[in-house]
Structure formats: C-alpha cells, structure tokens
C-alpha cells in the first residue's frame, strides 16, 4: 500500500513538474484582453465584420508597454487601444505592462526565445540591437503604403529609427522636455522667469535665501536629467558626438566642461534640494506641485498631474536657459522622438496578424489617434489639426503654444538616446554626480569618456 | 519501509527535486559563469572576450566600493546581530508573561517584505524628513542630525543596522531553538556543583550552542551578500554608487547599463565570495571543535 502511494506521489510530482516547465500556451494569446472594449467572452468576434465590410478572421495582437498600469500611466495608449478595438472588432488586443526596467529586461529575454510581443515599446539603443539581430519588422512598407502618415510625422522623428536601410520603429510619443516653472513663486520674489543661465543663477540665489528650492530634482532616479540633456545640446552635443564615438573627440572637452561647471555653480548656490541624494523623481514632482519648488526638470508627461494640482493656473513650460558661452544655436527645443513603438518580425509569418499590425499603426498615427492623445494632454506625434481648450487645460495649452513657437530648432534626438545604454547611464550618473557634489565637473566627464572607450 | 531504503527507490524519490535544483539553481550559475567571459548585451550573440570582464572588475573603483560596503554591513551585522540575537533569545527563554506574543513580535521584522523594510526605514533615516533627524533637531541636538543615508560615508552602516533589525528576530528564534535543545539536567547538575548563572552561560550554554552559532553566522554571511531591496529603497545605490552593495551594483550594471557580460562577472565573484566565506568559516569552526 505504502509503495503504491509513494509511486502515485512520485508520478504526481513529475506530472506537476513537467506541467510547470511546459509552454504556458501563451496566455496572452488566448485570454480575452482585459482592456478589450468588446471582450464579451463569446466567439462572436471570430467571424466579425470590420468597418470595411469584409468578413475577417479574429486576430489577437499582443502589445507590451513600459508602464505597469497602462490605463493610469499611459491613458492615451489605453484610449487608442479602446477606440481601435471599437473600429476593428475582429482584432483583440492583449495589453501587457511592466515598469520600464522590468519591461526592457522582459523584452530582451523574449528576444532570446523568439517570443516577442507583436507590438511593443522599446528603448532606442536595444531596439537598434534587436533590429540588427533581425527581430524587428521593417516599417518602410507601411510608410510607403500610408504616405499621409509618413508626411504627418516630423521627418527627424522618423529618421531616428532607421538603421541599415530599415525603418525598425516609429515614434511612440513626442519626447518634450524642459523646465516647468511656477510663475507665482517668481512673482512673489520679484524675479523674471529665467531665459538665460545668468537669470537662472540669479534666481537660484534669491530662492536659496528664502528657503525655496529652485529646481526640484531626485537623484535616486538618475534618469531624470532631461533639462540638463537639453542644455548639453546648447554646447554642441550633436556637432561632437560622432567624433566622440569615433574616438577623435572627448566628453571632457572645453564646451561640455563649461556646462558641467555651471551645474556645479548651481549646486554651490543651492539651486537643488538639500536632500537631493535621497529624493526620487516622483518626490521631486510632488515638491513642485505642492508649490515648494520654483522649477521642475521633467517633460510633458507630467502635464495632466500638474493640470490637476493647486498650482495649475500659475505653471508654465520652458525649454530651459540659453548660454552666453554656449556652442552653436541656443534656441533648441527638446521635442524629439522618445522611444519607438516596434513590431516583431514574426508577425509577417501570419498575413492576418501582419494586417492587424499595420491597421494598428495606421490608427495610432491617424488624426483619431492624435485626438485621443490630445484628450489626454499628451503631445501628438503627428501634426494635430484639433484645438485645445485654454480655459479647461491651461497647462497643456501652454505646452502646445511652446511647441508651436517659431524660431526654435529641434535636435535629432535627446542626447542619451543616441548613446549605448552603458554610456547613457554614465552620462546621467555624471550629471547627478555634479548635482550631488560627489564628482568634480572634469571628473564627471572623464567617467563618461571611460565608458565610451569601453 | 524496507523497500524505501533501496538505492534505486531513494534515487527515484530524489530525482524530481534534483532536476528542479539542477535546472533552476545549478544551470543558471553555470550559464552566468559562461556569460561572464563575454560581452553579452542581452540581445544577439555573445562575444567571447576571455578574462576581460574580470580585468575590468579588478580596475573598477565602483566594484571595490560595493565590495567595501558589503563588508562593512557584514562586520556591523556580525558585531551587533549575533550577540543581539543571542541576548534576545536568552530573554525569550525566560518564563515571562505573554512570552509567546513577545516572540511573535520579535519575529515580525523577518516576515515583512524587504521592500517594505526599505520603505519604513526611509522615513526613519532620511536626513530631511526622517524620524531620527527630526527628533534630534526638535531636541536641539543638531549635531546628531547626520546624513544617515544619501551621504558619502554612513549609508552602509545604516544598512547594517536595518539588516540587524530585520534579521534579529529570526536569528533569535534559531538561538532559542538551540537553547531548548540543551538538556535541563546539565544545568541542574552544574547548580548542585555550585555554578552560578554566568558560569553556566559561559561553560554550558555558549559551548553547547556552537552549532547554532555556526548556522547563524552562515545565515548572516549569505544574507548580507544577498542584500538588495533595502539598498534599492533607501538610496538606490546612490549618491553616485557610493552606497552600492555587490548585488545592487551587479543589478545596475546588468539591467540599467545593459552590460550583461560584465554584470555576470560581478555575480560570479559575489557567488564565489559567499561560498568561500561560508566554507572557510565552517572549516575554521570545525577545526576549533576538533581541537
């Protein structure tokens, strides 16, 4: 009896073990999408009719995003997916989300096992590597078939995701970064909202005397250096970067050193929070929206949050200070392609899936998609022809007006996005090193050079 | 039960667990070891570079900082955690009212998720809003309002204290189990022979807890080399990696910088250090017993 019992137990364990090791049948493909507006649990969609009137096969598209809760954190993507599913009821979306770092890690692992989602968000550098490894769909055909879309996206943003003759991705969103400011605080202390570095430094000195933080920042999240990356472009970053990567120029050059010295000068004059080293980016945002800081280094993704904060009526957006000793054009607006939305090469193996993917891209970059973005106060990637209610959305309206301001050039990309992950990480780390008072400016730049040479 | 003692049945019983252990523990260690000799970025093929990553590691000041911090936490933990847990176990061993409730309370920090432990201690240690500094300042003791975290020196010591708080209940429970194993009649005999409490402690309790001490030291060593979430929450390794420990630095290099190959060389060294420390300690303590 005991022997039989033992054998039964062993068999059970082995079966359980094998079941656990086996393929899970890709739950994402079979489960009705949580986000699906039409997920009624029936097979009605199997033979549903699209708006084009043709009977179409039911398709499930897996989409993976870089935020844990897409509905709350990327509401425009969630909204676009809802509208897309309404338009194409035969296409179900299996939407997955994970925090950026977790997401990137997951995508890399999935790339190794050739199980990438159909469409996913990816950082530019690893997306480029995935393209080199032949894992991503070439979207040239899509752009050729949809010339109106190709024409409606800023060409610099499209070009940012070309490599080896392939269009491996399209901009997911416009990365618009700079310095948010609380005009009420500037008015309170009789200061002008700074347009130049000298004005910023003068404001920092006054704010410090009055226990107001000039620029809210959180060093625990070293990725939050956007405004300073924008400043780097005003010291000729894009004139130098090719030479730096070729080994004929260095990060530790007189121009970049000037900028890093200025960051150090801002630190010495108390422009950053005293506890910047233990603050996170999210705490810095809270500090600004609570009216405790005059400026915030961030991007337009914070529009909605700021719009709903008590300081909404007095907030404005700026591209950051210009520099008298800068290199090249100073009127540079950091409105570039953020990170690409890419598709797996494998979708080409299934005609229905490929069709669904192109339909999704078509919808995402349509005026309908742009309208959803505008509704959610995100800057549309395509040229949007709709209007913004200035009374209802004063913060968003200010951002849009800055985007349309004439005389400002847009760079090809944000500096860290043209570097390898390791170098970009070191660049952020070096900027924060100076802000934290850990690195001397020249030392901080040397560390980036050592990463480049590796 | 005789059939269970046959070798083939024993093997049959062990096989499923062994397979899981091989696939999920041994194989990843071997794979990590292999990748530590490559410049793998997580995508595409891994390029074999021999010992290059280990040479880089040797010259990497941040690796040495994270190693130093790990050792500081180890020393702080052994200095405070081991005697602290032992004294706590002695107290818990006394027959006192609500003894079980006190035991449960002491064990509580061990069952809190490490990520929450980090969060709790941020509110205690933060130089600006933390309980310690706010309290010190309210008493006018501004000189005690130090940069417990986020500064250049104190963070690893603070992490050692947090680790001590987190582990003390668990290790005290292990000590308590050891104390309960010591036969009562040994104490009774020694009492008859005129031994006092201190003599009993030094001549009976501590020597007879030798194995328990050994287990606890190994638990501390392996625990310290695995610290991750607490650092992540308290400082995220900052400012500028000055408070990194080996695991957080490995994580940063591997997943933030995308240097998988180099990250695996840090993981391999961490693994080897943990093994060496544990084995050397176990070897030394065995030698002491034999002597």
Automatic annotation (TrEMBL), chain A:
Coiled-coil residues: none
Biased composition (Polar residues): 36-53
InterPro entries per UniProt: Bact_solute-bd_prot1 (IPR050490), SBP (IPR006059)
Signal peptide region: 1-20
Disordered, as annotated region: 29-53
Membrane recorded as keyword: yes
The UniProt record lists the keyword Membrane: yes
Keyword field: Cell membrane, Lipoprotein, Membrane, Palmitate, Signal
Entry-linked Pfam families: SBP_bac_1
PANTHER family cross-referenced by the UniProt entry: ARABINOSE-BINDING PROTEIN-RELATED, POLYGALACTURONAN_RHAMNOGALACTURONAN-BINDING PROTEIN YTCQ
Protein's recorded name: Carbohydrate ABC transporter substrate-binding protein (CUT1 family)
UniProtKB/TrEMBL annotation, chain B:
TM helices/strands, residue ranges: 12-35, 71-92, 104-124, 157-179, 215-234, 260-284
UniProt GO cellular component terms: plasma membrane
GO BP: transmembrane transport
SUPFAM superfamilies: MetI-like
Any matching Pfam family: BPD_transp_1
Taxonomy, superkingdom: Bacteria
Protein name: Carbohydrate ABC transporter membrane protein 1 (CUT1 family)
InterPro entries named among the record's database cross-references: ABC_transporter_permease (IPR051393), MetI-like (IPR000515), MetI-like_sf (IPR035906)
